[in-house]
Specification:
By secondary structure, the chain is of the alpha+beta class. The chain has a domain of about 210 residues. The chain has a three-stranded antiparallel beta sheet. A hairpin with a 2-residue loop joins strand 8 and strand 9. Helix 1 packs across helix 4 and helix 5 runs antiparallel to helix 6.
Length: about 400
């Protein structure tokens, strides 16, 4: 084990590096104890051809690491400013983390850098809400609002694709079951819901959806599956198997796999580009297929290009958010109509009516009415500590309930 060195005369702790011939100064810079000077170019780095060892240029010491908290809502670690090497042993009561030198976190663009700061539970919901709000705006701006000209086949296709988020009745029955003043907006609601479901299922279900061994190769020439690259799907399968045996260890593995995949060098840069490319292709696929293709408001090339670019911007942001989520030990879980109570009650702990219902949604007016479809699924923040699962409801599901009287 490396010997601990005394802290410098300052309040914040500086991670030490006891590699032979080096020690830390109070400023965080390495100072050589050897008589010969060592330059960056002579620093040992791993060479792919010679397999010689070395350290990456530009590595600065880590300024601190927060240990594991017993509070399931607090995150285990503070972010490294430039990266760290870890020795992790998961015990019954705590996980032990030791800090050394090593990996750099990527910083392609300061505005896009991933800062995996201590967990702020409100942040999770606000970020998801922002994505859903942008999707809603896209649906309002780029898709048809009138449902009268839709074919029966298109209506069936749209409803079937919303399974888990919408009851599987026919479109006209669902529309006529809404309060009267909301019926003209039914199609916009459902298009928004379809895009939101696609976003969650493609980008947030599998935390490794964008990972490939060589992200800098093949993006421009190979047509990769937009559902999940084979490598990412295999990692997800392994992750699920680890979760069955030890959920706490699985989440640590997922956390550090995500962080180590984004160093501040070529691998990190290439993965960002690859992730953006995957998100762009997902959007092209969505707009090029039914039901969205037939629901676009304009067939003008300029309008179509604008719709594509706007959707790609949203999905790129969502893709980046999914990576940020995966950088934490805690994880998000979405609860849909597959597991929610199918009947609404205003005292429900998991479901509330959309604000479009007004004050009546918080009273008993719609009690015992069927939930027609969701505006948002319920959002839980989860964390596994050995044999115990902590779950915290961050946001209730937002729903549309039937109005049998049809008088609203």
């Amino acid at each position: 084990m490396p010997k601990k060195q005394s802290n410098p005369p300052r309040n914040d702790k500086i991670a030490t590096n006891d590699a032979p011939g080096a020690h830390q100064s109070p400023t965080g810079r390495k100072e050589s104890r050897e008589p010969r000077a060592r330059t960056r170019s002579s620093s040992p780095i791993r060479n792919e051809k010679t397999d010689s060892t070395a350290c990456l240029t530009g590595v600065n010491p880590v300024l601190g690491l927060v240990g594991n908290s017993q509070d399931p809502e607090e995150e285990t670690t503070m972010p490294p400013e430039n990266g760290l090497d870890l020795e992790i042993s998961a015990g019954d009561d705590e996980e032990k983390l030791s800090v050394g030198k090593g990996l750099n976190w990527y910083d392609v663009d300061g505005s896009r850098a991933i800062d995996y700061l201590p967990l702020d539970v409100d942040w999770w919901w606000k970020e998801i809400q922002t994505i859903f709000g942008r999707i809603d705006g896209w649906a309002r701006n780029h898709t048809e609002r009138k449902h009268t000209n839709l074919s029966l086949e298109l209506k069936k296709d749209l409803i079937s694709r919303l399974d888990g988020y919408c009851i599987q009745d026919d479109f006209d029955t669902i529309m006529s079951s809404l309060p009267r003043r909301l019926r003209n907006r039914c199609l916009t609601y459902l298009v928004h819901l379809y895009l939101a479901k696609e976003c969650l299922s493609r980008l947030f279900t599998n935390p490794f959806w964008y990972l490939v061994p060589n992200p800098g190769h093949g993006d421009d020439t190979e047509e990769l599956s937009t559902d999940a690259p084979g490598f990412g799907a295999q990692l997800f399968d392994l992750y699920q198997r680890i979760s069955e045996a030890d959920p706490a260890a699985a989440h640590l593995w997922r956390l550090w796999t995500t962080r180590f995949s984004h160093p501040k060098h070529k691998l990190g840069y290439d993965l960002i580009a690859h992730r953006d490319s995957m998100a762009d292709r997902i959007c092209q696929e969505i707009l090029g297929e039914e039901p969205v293709r037939s629901l676009l408001r304009s067939a003008d090339k300029g309008d179509l290009d604008r719709a594509l670019v706007n959707l790609q911007e949203i999905f790129r942001s969502a893709a980046e958010l999914s990576v940020k989520f995966s950088c934490h030990r805690s994880y998000v879980e979405f609860k849909t109509l597959n597991t929610l109570d199918p009947v609404f009650h205003h005292l429900s702990a998991e479901v509330e009516l959309t604000e479009d219902y007004g004050k009546a949604g918080s009273q008993h007016c719609f009690d015992d009415r069927r939930i027609l479809f969701l505006e948002l699924p319920a959002l839980y923040l989860c964390r596994s500590d050995q044999d115990h699962l902590h779950k915290r409801l961050l946001r209730k599901a937002v729903a549309f309930a039937e109005d049998v009287a049809g008088s609203s």
